[in-house]
């Protein structure tokens, strides 16, 4: 296995603990971070662990700032195409046949919010917050990501999170089934052990692995769309990442200023025909 300089890894009693260790860059999901996380997830499965826990060392209370904006492509390229490292990471976490638990103590932004939802369970401190922020920087989120949120949350809460791009509290997230358990920060590890990891160690990993595979297959069965709808979604997204707002969103973020968006909703109308 490659050296994973952005992560700290500890195996303890058949649980594989992965801690993001790039607090200086707010644990951004850079291509390098995503590739290292994928390597760690693969190792946990190959080492026959019964579960994976993803944690983070924080700076300014940021668990992860999400996608590294500096790595987003410009010039009319899709920022969330199927084969970019962050999208591969989300699928890896969803598909690895053992449970993955996000242990969150801090703020979660953008793609890191999707990473948490890609995990099988989430425990969070009572001061944690979650925000999905593509609309803030003009990114057309992809169909698989939006479907992921619709599948996990109520439709209205998913809309609120995407349309407003504002954080929701851990308690609000708990109320809508986004997280499994909320606890004070100092009790978070205890709750994680008592409510999830200890029972997990006692149960049949063979049974759990089969059940996780079934969850994945059955959840996909409920989200089949027609080829026409898929093409229409791609047409909408292409108009956004080839339009003026996407580069303006990136530039304004990097220049630390408010964006001046000029796109109009009616710019997508031709995609209806």
Describe the protein:
The protein is built from ten helices and ten strands. It is α/β, with parallel strands linked by helices. The strands form two sheets. A six-stranded mixed β-sheet has the order 1-2-3-5-7-10, sandwiched between helices. It has a four-stranded mixed β-sheet with strand order 4-6-8-9. The chain starts with 6 loop residues before the first strand and ends in a 19-residue tail after the last helix.
Task: Briefly characterize the structure.
By secondary structure, this protein is α/β, with parallel strands linked by helices. The protein has helices at residues 31-46, 85-95, 111-118, 143-152, 155-164, 170-175, 188-202, 205-221, 227-241, 245-254, and strands spanning 7-12, 15-20, 51-56, 62-64, 100-104, 107-109, 121-125, 129-131, 168-169, 181-183. A hairpin with a 2-residue loop joins strand 1 and strand 2 (15-20).
């Amino acid at each position: 296995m490659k050296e994973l300089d952005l992560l700290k890894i500890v195996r303890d009693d058949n649980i594989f603990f992965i801690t993001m260790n790039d607090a200086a860059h707010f644990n951004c999901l850079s291509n390098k971070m995503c590739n290292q996380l994928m390597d760690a997830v693969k190792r946990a499965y190959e080492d026959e662990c019964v579960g994976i826990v993803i944690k983070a060392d924080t700076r300014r209370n940021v668990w992860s700032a999400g996608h590294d904006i500096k790595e987003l492509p410009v010039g009319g390229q899709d920022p969330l195409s199927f084969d970019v490292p962050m999208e591969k990471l989300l699928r890896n976490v969803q598909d690895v046949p053992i449970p993955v638990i996000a242990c969150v103590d801090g703020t979660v932004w953008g793609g890191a919010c999707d990473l948490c939802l890609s995990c099988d369970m989430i425990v969070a401190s009572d001061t944690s917050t979650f925000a999905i922020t593509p609309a803030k920087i003009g990114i057309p989120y992809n169909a698989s990501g939006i479907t992921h949120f619709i599948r996990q949350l109520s439709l209205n809460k998913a809309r609120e999170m995407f349309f407003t791009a504002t954080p929701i509290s851990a308690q609000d997230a708990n109320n809508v089934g986004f997280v499994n358990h909320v606890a004070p920060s100092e009790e978070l590890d205890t709750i994680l052990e008592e409510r999830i990891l200890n029972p997990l160690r006692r149960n049949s990993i063979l049974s759990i692995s089969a059940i996780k595979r079934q969850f994945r297959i059955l959840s996909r069965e409920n989200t089949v769309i027609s080829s026409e709808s898929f093409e229409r979604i791609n047409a909408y997204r292409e108009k956004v990442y080839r339009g003026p707002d996407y580069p303006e969103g990136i530039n304004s973020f990097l220049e630390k200023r408010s964006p001046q968006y000029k796109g109009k909703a009616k710019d997508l109308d031709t995609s209806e025909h």
